[in-house]
Design goal:
The structure holds 3 protein chains of 3 kinds. Chain A is an all-alpha fold. Chain A has 11 helices and no strands. The radius of gyration of chain A is 19 Å and the shape is globular. The longest helix of chain A is centred in the C-terminal third of the chain and has 33 residues. Chain A has one domain. Chain B has one domain. The radius of gyration of chain B is 19 Å and the shape is globular. Chain C has 2 domains: 230 residues, Rossmann fold (3-Layer(aba) Sandwich), CATH 3.40.50.300; 61 residues, Alpha-Beta Plaits (2-Layer Sandwich). In chain C, 36% of the residues lie in helices and 28% in strands. Chain C contains 11 helices and 14 strands. Chain C is of the alpha/beta class. In chain C, the strands form 3 sheets. In chain C, strands 6-7-8-3-9-10 form a 6-stranded mixed sheet, with helices on both faces. Chain C has a 4-stranded antiparallel sheet with strand order 2-1-4-5. Chain C starts with a strand and ends with a helix. The chains are: A mainly alpha, B mainly alpha, C alpha/beta. Chains A and C meet through helix 1, helix 5 and helix 11 of A and strand 6 and helix 3 of C.
């Protein structure tokens, strides 16, 4: 727990002193404006709250990939991985602390799009199902953390981690159905999407901000958590394996 | 050698250096599997919004706009290059050399304009038919040079920004991403310019992409050539303007750097 | 109990690419460091010092052989070893440079299982101890190289380790800072800590160590007292001089203890001396001959090795 807290605090310090880390908070309002403009111009007020939710999911995914997913690569390049491994603390706990810190930060985008909707377009997010909305956001952030652990572990060995994360953003937005529900995608993509928790999260998030009652909320939320946990478990295994391999090959230090 | 020949020679070498850098990042396979897949996904992401709106015209509108955005987006990546140059500590060496850094940079990153244009065209000509869009042959060929024009104009804009944020390396990627998403919001990519308040519409005309995109939409809509050429000329003027501004900002940067020592070696 | 026991450790780096070469970084290295000793690991770059330090600090596995820190195996008993050790790497990396020095230390304190209060207190103490208290709240990126080195040392001490591994800790420090640093190493020993100091600096090894193990190309050459090392260093000298008449050089060649007089491109003439006292005679003769450009320097590590090995009749 101490290691988790240390990781959490460390990442807050880093975010505070690194303006680049604030990027998603700049792009979230811009994407909100873009999506709102599209649905407004097409005269579809029914899609307005969907248009506001999409940037929130994009921000969380972006943070999970670009920031959380590359934490370990960054540490390795800065020659920090070895001293961390040599300390009596488990790397996974520190890592999870840092990732959760980033996720909390990413959730700020929700308040941003809320403000954009209100100030620029004069619409409010309809808080029809506040409990469902809150739980969906929290569980989504948790599942994102699980995804980030997997990415972190997979990317630590690669040379072009940033090129990879850059290439993954929009494919994931698409497969995760962050704006356009997966149901509209071609049939052959659907199985891929449905094992991605993001698609469950985005459907649930949209349902939570629309007037109609949220159907089978708990099982769907359970799916988000289940897939997130699975991703976390995979990440832990990969991390364990990768670290062992690196310790044997001497690749903990970047050449 | 004459001044022109010297400059051309410098540019040729700088261009090769740029290509070499690029090939260190991408191979053909990783370009296709990594970057190009992302490009297609980005364009499809927006085209699908049109599908969700149930409006084919809107789908094509979004598809064309977001394909062309790719050319502008990659052009803006020139910001990264300058920062990388600073990181490698080669910039003071460039300033100290008898060639102008702007000449070097403009050639060095020219591959970005080419890469961006190819990506954009690749998106348009692959995603377009997939979404059932008509590509009116042969006039659609006019899109090729127009796309290149957008790539170059955006590259000039990116180089200008590089000069501005040069001293603040820590905000480099923040500026890159915020810039291209802003272009996505402002330049008539997703909604017509007329949707915005008038001052914003006017401002957009001074940004790269806006006029070039209008020209390309004109090609698809079958507008008279004179209108298309008019918009293309505006895009050219905008690109030229930003490149000139880049030149000035770099000269200022070099002279200020010499004064206050911000052109540090290997920092 | 011995603080560090190394038994026939071998470490081979297999090539990562087909064109790469197989590197034997350590070749059956054995070594013992008793508790409370400052033990030098002296060798040129690429000798295998860092590889050994990495193995001992649990971040690298040996190919074969055994190593124990305070009785715990570094391969299997990592959980027991890690709380007992502190690591200081040289160089500028290994710190979060967007954070202040104090934040760095507090973070590492948490990783060494200190409560926030303990971590704060220990960080403050260490910052004072390494003379960084007034810069503690500036970002590491603003620090000079020497300051980063001192912060590295403080970082290595956050866990209060009983055994400290220092890998080229004074690289890039100015001479004054390096001297203070060495004094600090003495203090740490007086507190009962064991220190393994990897360095390529013969003078440093001679000054601070209780014993010195010489290592080259992955093999231990000898373990010596620093006194032996000092004697070798004072005996062997190298004198470079320019513009001396040949007659004088012939005279110098005849002085007892002058091993060689050779012309070296770009230097002029190099005179090598291998007996104590001979240097003084050579210098006197050169000065009286009116030579003004005279420079003396220590022999290289390799030359010392050759000398030590030659005296013992050993083979590499």
């Amino acid at each position: 727990m101490r290691a988790f807290r240390a990781g959490f605090a460390l990442e807050l310090w880093i975010i505070r002193s690194n303006p680049d880390a604030l990027m998603p908070l700049f792009t979230a309002p811009l994407f909100a404006i873009i999506f709102m403009a599209i649905v407004r111009q097409s005269g579809r007020p029914d899609l307005e709250s969907d248009a506001l939710m999409a940037p929130v999911l994009m921000t969380l995914l972006w943070v999970a990939l670009q920031h959380a997913g590359t934490l370990m690569v960054g540490d390795r390049w800065q020659a920090l991985l070895e001293p961390i491994i040599a300390s009596p603390t488990s790397l996974a706990s520190v890592l999870l602390g840092r990732i959760m810190s980033l996720m909390c930060f990413g959730l700020l985008s929700f308040f941003e799009v809320w403000a954009v909707g209100k100030l620029v377009f004069g619409v409010s997010i309809p808080f029809e199902h506040p409990v469902e909305l809150f739980l969906t956001l929290v569980c989504t952030a948790l599942a994102m953390a699980g995804l980030a652990v997997t990415f972190s572990a997979l990317l630590v060995m690669t040379r072009n981690a940033y090129t990879f994360t850059n290439s993954t953003s929009f494919p994931l937005y698409l497969l995760g159905g962050v704006f356009v529900p997966v149901a509209i995608l071609p049939d052959w993509i659907q199985p891929v999407s449905s094992i991605l928790f993001v698609s469950w999260s985005s459907d649930l998030l949209r349902a939570s901000v629309n007037e109609a009652p949220v159907e089978s909320f708990w099982p769907r939320l359970g799916m988000v958590l289940l897939l997130g946990t699975a991703s976390f478990a995979i990440g832990r295994v990969v991390l364990h394996y990768v670290l062992r391999r690196m310790r044997a090959s001497g690749e903990l230090a970047a050449a | 050698m004459s001044a022109v020949a010297t400059t051309l020679n410098v540019m040729q070498h700088a261009f090769r250096a740029g290509i070499a850098d690029y090939r260190a990042i991408f191979t053909w396979k990783s370009w296709l599997a990594g970057w190009y897949v992302r490009v297609l996904a980005q364009v499809a992401f927006f085209a699908l919004i049109g599908e969700r709106l149930g409006d084919d015209e809107k789908t094509y509108y979004l598809l064309v706009g977001n394909s062309l955005l790719i050319a502008a987006q990659v052009g803006v990546f020139s910001l990264n290059m300058t920062s990388a140059e600073r990181w490698a500590g080669t910039l003071p060496l460039l300033v100290a050399s008898p060639s102008s850094p702007v000449v070097v940079f403009s050639a060095r990153g020219a591959y970005l304009a080419i890469d961006g244009s190819l990506s954009a065209l690749g998106a348009l000509f692959i995603a377009g038919p997939l979404f059932g869009m008509d590509l009116p042959w042969p006039r659609v060929l006019a899109v090729v040079p127009l796309t290149l024009l957008v790539g170059l104009a955006s590259y000039g804009f990116g180089t200008f920004l590089a000069g501005i944020v040069f001293r603040y390396r820590s905000i480099n990627s923040l500026v890159v991403v915020t810039t291209y998403v802003s272009l996505m919001a402002a330049c008539g990519v997703n909604v017509p310019l007329s949707y915005y308040p008038e001052p914003l519409e006017l401002l957009a005309r001074f940004l790269p992409l806006t006029n070039g995109l209008l020209a390309i939409r004109g090609v698809f809509a079958g507008l008279p050539a004179v209108e298309i050429v008019g918009n293309a000329a505006l895009e050219l003027a905008v690109g030229f303007g930003w490149m000139t501004a880049a030149l000035m900002s770099f000269n200022r940067l070099a002279s200020r750097g010499r004064r206050d020592g911000s052109l540090d070696f290997g920092a | 109990m011995e603080a560090v026991e190394v038994e026939e450790i071998t470490r081979v780096f297999e090539p990562r690419r087909r064109s790469g070469t197989r590197v034997v970084a350590l070749d059956e290295v054995s070594l013992t460091v008793p508790t409370g000793e400052i033990h030098g690991l002296l060798g040129p770059n690429g000798a295998g010092k860092t590889t050994l330090v990495k193995i001992l600090s649990t971040v690298l596995l040996p190919t074969s052989g055994k190593a124990r820190v305070l009785g715990h195996d570094v391969v299997d008993e990592t959980e027991a070893v890690r709380p007992l050790i502190g690591i200081v790497f040289g160089g500028e990396r290994g710190l979060y440079w967007r954070l202040s020095g104090r934040q760095n230390l507090e973070y590492w304190g948490a990783l060494y299982k200190l409560s926030s209060r303990e971590a704060k207190e220990r960080a403050q103490q260490l910052l004072e101890r390494v003379g960084m208290a007034d810069k503690a709240d500036e970002r590491v990126e603003e620090y000079s190289r020497g300051m980063k080195q001192r912060l590295h040392l403080a970082r290595g001490l956050m866990g209060d380790g009983k055994v400290l591994f220092l890998d080229e800790p004074t690289t890039g420090m100015d001479p004054l800072a390096a001297r203070e640093f060495r004094a600090l190493i003495g203090e740490l020993r007086d507190e009962g800590r064991t220190i393994l100091l990897a360095t390529h600096d013969m003078v440093e090894a001679e000054m601070v160590c209780d014993r010195v193990t010489l290592i080259d190309r992955g093999k231990v050459i000898a373990t010596e007292s620093p006194r032996t090392l000092g004697q070798v260093l004072s005996r062997f000298q190298r004198i470079d001089v320019e513009g001396v008449p040949l007659v004088v050089l012939d005279e110098i060649r005849a002085i007892r203890g002058v091993a060689s007089v050779t012309a070296v491109d770009g230097v002029g003439t190099r005179i090598e001396v291998d007996e104590e006292g001979a240097t003084q005679l050579v210098l006197e003769r050169l000065v009286s001959a009116g030579a003004t450009s005279v420079r003396t320097s220590l022999p290289s590590l390799e030359e010392v090795y050759v000398q030590l090995i030659g005296e013992r009749g050993m083979e590499i």
